[in-house]
Amino acid sequence: MLSLSVLNTADAETGAQVEVVWGNPGDPAKRIRATVAQAPYKPVRSRVDLRHHLATYRAESGPAA
C-alpha cells in the first residue's frame, strides 16, 4: 500500500519504522505501521548533470575552431 504522510524531520530518515494515523477526517481512523521511503519513486531522468555530457562531447569533438 502506498500513502503520503507528513513527518517530523527527526523521524523522516529513509528506512525508519513509524506509526501513522490513517483515515479521512470525520471517519474512524486507524494507526498503521509504515516504513519511511523517499519520493518520487520513479527517478527523474531529465535532471542530470549536463557538465559530464558536455565534457564528453568536447573531448570527442576535438579542439574548438
TrEMBL record:
It comes from the Bacteria. This is Uncharacterized protein. It comes from Streptomyces humidus. The lineage of its organism: Bacteria, Bacillati, Actinomycetota, Actinomycetes, Kitasatosporales.
